[in-house]
Every structure is written in C-alpha cells, then in structure tokens.
Amino acid sequence: MQEVRKKRNELLAQTVIKGLKSRNMEGYYASGREEAREIALSLIPEGASVTNGGTFSAEEIGLVDAVKAGNYRYIDRKDSKDRYTAEREAYSCDCFLSSVNAMTNDGILINIDGNANRVSAIAYGPKKVIFIVGMNKVAGDDIDSALKRARNEAATINAQRFGLDTPCTKTGACMDCKSPDNICCQFLITRYSKHPGRIHVILVNEELGF
Asked: Are 155 and 147 in contact (CB under 8 A)?
C-alpha cells in the first residue's frame, strides 16, 4: 500500500510543479529526504547568508545541520542573545528556509503565523525562499481545503507542541479563537511570485512536518 501511495504522490507532484511554474515559482520533486537536501543545497551559493523562521521539515531532512556545517553564514535565531534582531536579519539574507502549512494541487501556498516573522520574510525580503514540503501537505484543489488543513492540523499540532493554552489544544481542531496564546494571527496566501527565481518549492515524497 505504501508503494501505491508513493506512486500517487509522484504523479501528483508533477501536477503541483506545473501549477507552481504557472505562478512564476520553481518546483522540484525529490523521492526522499537525502535527494531533497541535495536539491536544496544546490540552490544555495557558497558563502550565502541563510536563516529560517522555524521549519521542522528542513530540520527533518538534515538541511539545517548541513547548512550549519557548510560554507555558509547561518543566522541562528534560536541561539542568538537578541532573537528579535536575528529574526530581522532574515529580510536581508540570501536564502530563507521554510515549509508550508498547506498548499493546493495547483501550487498556491498557505502559511499561518503567530509573530509574523516567518510569513513576512516569505512575502518580502530574502533574495531566495526555499520551501521543503512533504507531500502530506498537498491538500486538494482549492484554497478552502488548504486553509482547513493549515488551521485544523498544522496550527493545532503546533499549538500542542508549544504547550499553548488555546481551545484547539483541548479539542484537536481549530475553534477560531481569540486566545492570547493563539498562533493563528497572520494568514499568508502566496498565489504568484512577482520575482522570477525567488521562490523554490521542493516536494518530498515523504510525510514531513505538521
């Protein structure tokens, strides 16, 4: 059954890549984590400044560790004494690593954020944005389906992971709350890239992230 699913994902990925191309974004297919990591590294020039806004998927494939160990200037907001300043450096960095909370079959990217440092850097600033996206995050033909996945699965799991006091951590589904702890403050829908060669989406035939 797993092989059947992988074949389906491989075929679906080609549809998604066509959709991304129509939206002035570059799409790539990787059969697994190692291939995804190599594709990502091929997109990052040596000596480039690199950071991220929090991406479990890039960590899962070993990309963050590879960048830290390589010939790059990695801006690590987690280890910075001044996290706010480190996050602001993202706007002028060469490469920003991210994932999506969900995306449509035709290449629309959906992201939800609490502090907005991640979605704002995706929208503007870094010269290049590289998304690592497990095929589990491709959520259907329309924006509503992708938004439902982002709110009820990605955001809910992240709220639970961070130990936040929100209704979704107790019910397992988005309650459209206005809790002080809520992380669904900013919604970013990326339907087209104004700048060619800026947004790169690597689709990985594995389950990655949330």
From this structure: no
Helices (H), the chain: 2-22, 33-42, 56-60, 63-69, 83-88, 117-123, 143-149, 156-161, 167-171
pLDDT in tens, 135-153: 999 999 999 999 999 999 9
Overall fold of domain 2-204: Rossmann fold (3.40.50)
- Whole-structure pTM value: 0.96
Sign (positive or negative) of CA dihedral 176, 152, 101, 109: negative
- Domain spans in the chain, listed from the N-terminal domain onward: 2-204
**pLDDT tens, position by position, 120-129:** 999 999 999 9
Look over the chain and give the mean of its residue pLDDT values, rounded to a whole number: 96
* Amino acid making up residue 196: P
In the chain, what is the greatest distance between 2 CA atoms, to the nearest angstrom? 48
Q: For residues 130 and 66, what is the distance between their CA atoms, to the nearest angstrom? A: 15
Beta bridge partners of 97: 52, 130
